[in-house]
Amino acid sequence: METKKQNCWAIILAGGEQRLTPDLHCCIAGEKTPRQFSRTVDGQSLIEQTRRRVEMAIPKDQIFYTLNHSDERFYVPLLFDALLARLVVQPLNRGTAPAILYALMRLGLVDPNAHVALFPCDRSVSDDRLLMRQVKVAFDVIEQRPDQIVVLGIAPTTPEPAYGWIEPASPFRCAGETLFHVLRFIENPPAEVARRMHAYGRCLWNSFVFIARLPNLLALIIRTLPELYQIFAGFTGTLGTEFETENVERTYRAIEPVDFCKSALSTQVRKHLSVLPVSGLCWNDLENSSRVWRPSLASK
Known about the structure:
alpha/beta, 11 strands, single chain
């Protein structure tokens, strides 16, 4: 792949608490382990797979990880060579929106104008290089169109109701690729709606891989989740100091869980959101443990 861009950063979201089923644990983990730290059929944990994938395009020291303090015994052996300053350890899991906001605030201390990609680490991907080539295209897009927040959309192979879906609007060209403005995001649609979207032939699965300039992601959260942002802004001055842990813990205990996709991706900001299609890829969201074993046909 091309030389890695030095102004590009990544945030790997590894703070979920869901476990795989007990029977599956006996097969691949030996204990009840959060799915992002569970070893799958290829012998690597999902966070290791995600890290390997991301490092194809982004320098290892420019990757942040959102983690939960309760998972320390799982992530320490796997991230032993990561910079401590890149570990964003949450006292509690409060959903993806607080995790993303906290990580963006920590990244802002290092590079307030960073170009950043968000990656979930509970996805199975058949072709890492193909995916990361599209991530690089998305970085080129936000270089040319600074206002855009780009999400990778996976060409669906099934009418999966448990996934998030994206309905694209009008196309536009940028960085040599065709992207689409986003008409709407549909999280976990009813089965019949999922079947209609799949039959429609234009809708895409939401990969939850977002690429944008850091100020634009913060602006998105400020517009859609102002109360959450104000709460977090209260400890901004203690970031990187000995008081950070205490203030972060107090903040996390005072908030309710907030999902980024359901809460932040509203219609009021859709003019700044675009989707870059990715086809020819096997993509499994492993929220359902049965998908660990389920083969998926590559998109055509």
